[in-house]
């Protein structure tokens, strides 16, 4: 098989698999475009009849518009991602490639904090954040998101996989630790930084529980909270509006993803599985 | 229990110290900033009524401003409200929907004692009734006032009823209900959504409790599970696999609007789907029948609900009471469109009909039977007052009902498992000081 | 615990260079034996973690030894010593939940990792429309779970859903969410569907590390595809695999959102996993002390699993 045909055989296979993955999204889009009663019609109705563009209009405009919340979510996510990339990369690097007192103990504590179920933290966090004066401010969402354990863990695992000899050589040449980090290891980390950037964005974007408990003013709602506009007091969800808002909320994440995924370079065709 | 010589006092001292130093420094009640407006938290989206109530209140009392904040009435939404109330967030008046949170909030100092205010207002006298209570009493004190009366009734799809030649019952027994459902069952439609709440109709309020134990030994519980299972098996009630996989416990209206079944035991809040044929297209009228009786007993399995409560920490007690009184007496009109029947019947029947059934009531509803059944002043509403281990029992009953009606478990063993869990939960809760 | 061994693992990625060194050296190469500089590197993150996560977390530990219903406020906290833990040991619902969680994690985590690795490798190859393909497989991870739940309920409807229409051709008709035998498998399918995009993203970035010269050298040696995968690719993605396994286990042990939305733990208690049971006792039954105790026990269990994962990695590294 030539490389060219191999590429197409693989490509076709992957696209068939991708279609299976896309089916649920086709359904979401179709539900976003139809009247609510048809959403639950049995058997499933894939093509909306009639097309109800109204759902998108009411999600984007008027009293239940998600756009202000959308903006706040972007703001929160941007700061969280920036903070997380900086602090997690430095900490992850140090945990993997440097030696200092209590290193392993601190790292074990890190892992432990990640394991404690988040839902149990909600109430203590509420009490504590209220005393810090952060309750009902966007900082209550941003600050904890800038210093994460999972990001640090991810970066640590990446740097641990990098050859140590680079650093040894540089140190012998008298390079400072900061220089070793920024000039030698950081450039290697571009792909994994992209991955962490994407993930941190998603974690921030879809966070529901933290803002639920820490934000009360609807003027400060983030996107996931604003979706509760489409749930009535009986717990009945308006499917058309919810799906329309969900489809809209995918867009920025996809943009971030498509921009950053280019860092995963194509060069390797030899990874072992053919 | 403390075999290893771990004394309770030691544990308490150590942990108390840890808590005190590390996490919860100073339990001072930080009131935070209080706004000038009365802060009201409720579960109904503002545009479905509350905004109009607030507007009317501000028109009548221009000196008072009200801000309505909506919380989602689910587990996590209630957690949000509870933490906020507990943390001294600026909330003056709030709604409580579920019976579990109701007892907890009233019993834990999150609800102000409204007894004296109610006594002083003659128009609110019905709230002092303890026979069929419309208020929540905590040790004899009024802590919450129900804003809505939520009777249940059976709705008929008129088109299908006429086709089948079935008469609209003015009163019927549970056996007749089942027989009717069977007659209405056709090749492509199911007779009834489900069997009504048999045990509750027979036993009335607090039907889960018998002294300091649960009451699931009463045969009516097993009867309900059995009839339900048999009706599903004979095709006269909705298949439970469909109910679970389409979440029909919450979305029954979709199947009813789609004319998948004929008989619907339901509540007023679902009327909103039937009066708006533009949003919820359908071309049939509905008529109303009372719940069937069980062994001659006729408790209505609906209840009084949507309780208004006042935060005792609120510095605006008087305005809060003014708002509550307004809401209960003259303010509840806008809530009709959300399917909320006011707990005080001080609106005329015609007002209720036009508010609840929309602009063309005759087109979608048999108004005569609506008046007779839903607005019946003699309805015996079974509102519970005992709420021990309420959420635990509700869950156990739901779990076993699902298994039974899926056909995975026989009614007898299923009810015995509910009883076992309920007894244990009640015992555990009563042990609490 | 052997955190230092991760460095050894990476050394294994360079078989020829590292193997000789490893036998002679205790400390992995490139790690400065002493110093405070490293502490400065972690300081920004460490302070943030302490301030915003660790401090509130201590109170969870404290709450586990109390009986508290939240609405009674801080004054209503009643210390009960080890009562909660004694009760947990005797709570059949808890042990049932442990079993379900082990099945849930035991099936969904390995599946997600294996499929994610295969997908990550495939998506790093030149493919027509690769950027789009990568995005499509990642989509499930980013959609909000309310939409995901609503969609899968429809797709997995036993009588009319797309899934059973396809399976019907094979003579299979599982009851999915309307059957206490099939509800957990349905959740596993959803977890894998939602997780492979995440796993492949991690792998896509990790696969950049395997030095190309090694593959070229292996080609010259005439090594087969499997050998290249085992000797070069796998060691280079092993640290990321550890990260994935640990985070996926944490995800299973904490995730209750989809369960709350789709099955609410049912039918019966067939999908009441540990995290959902904790959610029930805390947020529905208002037993926050007991819920915290369950959380603490879960924590201990996951910690043990994490350490085991770590040891497996060390064993693996030494084995090579």
Automatic annotation (TrEMBL), chain A:
CDD domains: TM_PBP2 (cd06261). It holds the Pfam family BPD_transp_1. SUPFAM superfamilies: MetI-like. This is Carbohydrate ABC transporter permease. One of its GO terms (cellular component) is plasma membrane. It is found in: Cell membrane. One of its GO terms (biological process) is transmembrane transport. InterPro entries: MetI-like, MetI-like_sf. The keyword Membrane applies. Its main location: membrane. Belongs to the binding-protein-dependent transport system permease family. It is a multi-pass membrane protein. The lineage of its organism: Bacteria, Bacillati, Actinomycetota, Actinomycetes, Kitasatosporales. The chain crosses the membrane at residues 12-33, 74-95, 107-127, 139-159, 180-203, 237-260. Residues 70-260 form the ABC transmembrane type-1 domain. Keywords: Cell membrane, Membrane, Transmembrane, Transmembrane helix, Transport. PANTHER family: ABC TRANSPORTER PERMEASE PROTEIN MG189-RELATED, ABC TRANSPORTER PERMEASE PROTEIN MG189-RELATED-RELATED.
UniProtKB/TrEMBL annotation, chain C:
GO terms for biological process: transmembrane transport. CDD domains: TM_PBP2. Its main location: membrane. The chain crosses the membrane at residues 36-65, 102-123, 135-155, 182-204, 242-265, 285-310. PROSITE patterns: ABC_TM1 (PS50928). It is a multi-pass membrane protein. Belongs to the binding-protein-dependent transport system permease family. This is Sugar ABC transporter permease. It comes from Streptomyces coryli.
């Amino acid at each position: 098989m030539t490389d060219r045909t191999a590429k197409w055989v693989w490509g076709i296979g992957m696209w068939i698999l991708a279609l299976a993955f896309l089916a649920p999204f086709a359904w979401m889009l179709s539900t976003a475009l139809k009247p609510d009663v048809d959403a639950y019609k049995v058997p499933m109705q894939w093509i909306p009849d009639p097309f109800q563009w109204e759902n998108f209009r009411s999600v984007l405009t008027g009293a239940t518009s998600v756009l202000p919340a959308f903006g706040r979510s972007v703001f929160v996510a941007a700061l969280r991602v920036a903070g997380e990339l900086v602090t997690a990369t430095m900490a992850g690097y140090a945990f993997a490639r440097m030696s200092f007192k209590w290193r392993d103990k601190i790292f074990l504590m890190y892992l432990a904090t990640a394991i404690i179920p988040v839902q149990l933290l909600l109430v203590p966090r509420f009490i504590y954040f209220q005393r810090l004066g952060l309750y009902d401010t966007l900082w209550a969402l941003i600050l904890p998101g800038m210093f994460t354990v999972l990001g640090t863990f991810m970066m640590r695992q990446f740097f641990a996989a990098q050859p140590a000899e680079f650093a040894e050589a540089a140190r012998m040449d008298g390079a400072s630790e900061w220089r070793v980090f920024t000039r030698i290891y950081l450039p290697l980390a571009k792909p994994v930084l992209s991955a962490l950037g994407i993930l941190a964005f998603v974690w921030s974007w879809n966070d529901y529980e933290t803002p639920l408990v820490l934000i009360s003013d609807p003027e400060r709602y983030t996107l996931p909270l604003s979706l509760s506009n489409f749930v009535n007091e009986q717990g009945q969800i308006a499917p058309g509006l919810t799906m329309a808002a969900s489809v809209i909320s995918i867009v920025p994440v996809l943009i971030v993803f498509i921009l950053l995924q280019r860092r995963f370079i194509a060069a390797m065709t030899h990874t072992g599985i053919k | 229990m403390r075999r290893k010589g771990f004394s309770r006092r030691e544990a308490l001292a150590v942990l108390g110290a840890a808590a005190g130093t590390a996490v919860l420094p100073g339990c001072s009640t930080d009131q935070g900033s209080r706004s000038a407006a009365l802060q009201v938290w409720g579960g109904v989206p503002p545009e479905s009524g509350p905004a109009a109530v607030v507007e009317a209140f501000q028109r009548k009392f221009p000196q008072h401003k009200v801000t309505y904040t909506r919380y989602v009435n689910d587990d996590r939404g209630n957690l949000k409200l509870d933490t906020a109330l507990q943390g001294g967030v600026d909330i003056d008046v709030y709604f409580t929907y579920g019976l579990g949170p109701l007892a907890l909030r009233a019993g834990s100092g999150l609800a102000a004692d409204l007894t004296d205010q109610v006594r002083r207002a003659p128009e609110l006298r019905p709230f002092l009734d303890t026979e069929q209570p419309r208020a929540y009493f905590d040790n004899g004190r009024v802590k919450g006032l129900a804003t809505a009366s939520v009777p249940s009734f059976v709705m008929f799809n008129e088109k299908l009823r006429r086709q089948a030649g079935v008469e609209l019952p003015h009163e019927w027994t549970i056996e007749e209900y089942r027989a009717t459902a069977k007659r209405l069952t056709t090749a492509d439609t199911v007779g009834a959504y489900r069997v009504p709440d048999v045990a509750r109709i027979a036993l009335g309020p607090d039907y889960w409790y018998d002294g300091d134990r649960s009451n699931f030994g009463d045969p009516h519980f097993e009867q309900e599970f059995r009839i339900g299972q048999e009706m599903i098996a004979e095709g006269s009630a909705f298949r439970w696999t469909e109910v679970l996989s389409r979440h029909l416990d919450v979305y029954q209206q979709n199947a009813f609007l789609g004319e998948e079944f004929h008989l619907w035991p339901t509540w007023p809040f679902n009327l909103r789907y039937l009066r708006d044929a533009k949003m919820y297209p359908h071309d049939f009228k509905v008529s109303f029948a009372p719940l069937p009786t069980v062994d001659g007993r006729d408790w209505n399995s609906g209840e009084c609900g949507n309780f208004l409560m006042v935060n005792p920490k609120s510095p605006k007690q008087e305005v809060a009471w003014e708002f509550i009184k307004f809401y209960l007496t003259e303010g509840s009109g806008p809530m009709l469109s959300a399917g909320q029947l006011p707990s005080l019947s001080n609106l005329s029947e015609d007002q209720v009909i036009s508010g609840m059934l929309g602009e063309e009531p005759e087109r979608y509803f048999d108004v005569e039977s609506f008046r007779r059944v839903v607005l019946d002043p003699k309805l015996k509403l079974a509102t519970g007052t005992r709420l021990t281990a309420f959420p635990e029992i509700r869950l156990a009953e739901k779990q076993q009902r699902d298994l039974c009606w899926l056909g995975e478990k026989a009614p007898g063993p299923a009810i015995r498992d509910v009883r076992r869990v309920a007894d244990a939960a009640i015992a555990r809760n009563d042990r609490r000081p | 615990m052997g955190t230092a061994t991760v460095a050894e693992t990476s050394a294994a990625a360079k078989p020829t260079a590292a193997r000789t060194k490893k036998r002679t050296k205790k400390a992995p190469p490139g790690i400065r034996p002493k110093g405070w500089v490293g502490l400065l590197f972690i300081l920004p993150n460490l302070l943030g973690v302490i301030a915003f996560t660790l401090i509130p977390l201590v109170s969870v530990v404290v709450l586990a030894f109390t009986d508290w219903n939240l609405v009674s406020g801080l004054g209503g906290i009643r210390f009960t010593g080890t009562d909660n833990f004694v009760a947990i040991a005797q709570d059949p619902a808890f042990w049932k939940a442990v079993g379900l969680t082990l099945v849930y994690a035991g099936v969904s985590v390995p599946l997600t990792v294996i499929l994610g690795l295969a997908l990550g490798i495939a998506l790093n190859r030149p493919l027509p429309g690769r950027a789009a393909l990568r995005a499509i497989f990642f989509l499930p991870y980013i959609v909000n779970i309310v939409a995901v739940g609503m969609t899968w309920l429809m797709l997995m409807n036993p009588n009319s859903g797309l899934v059973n229409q396809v399976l019907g051709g094979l003579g299979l008709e599982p009851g999915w969410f309307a059957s206490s035998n099939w509800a957990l498998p349905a959740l596993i399918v959803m977890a894998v569907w939602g997780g492979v995009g995440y796993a492949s993203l991690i792998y896509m970035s990790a696969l950049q590390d395997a030095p190309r010269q090694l593959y070229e050298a292996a080609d010259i040696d005439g090594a087969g595809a499997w050998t290249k995968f085992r000797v070069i690719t796998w060691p280079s993605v092993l640290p990321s695999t550890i990260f994935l396994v640990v985070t996926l286990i944490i995800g299973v042990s904490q995730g209750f959102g989809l369960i709350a939305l789709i099955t609410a733990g049912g039918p019966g208690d067939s999908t009441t996993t540990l995290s959902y049971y904790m959610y029930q006792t805390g947020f529905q039954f208002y037993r926050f002390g007991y819920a915290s105790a369950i959380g603490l026990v879960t924590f201990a269990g996951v910690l043990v699993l994490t350490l085991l994962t770590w040891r497996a990695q060390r064993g693996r590294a030494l084995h090579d």
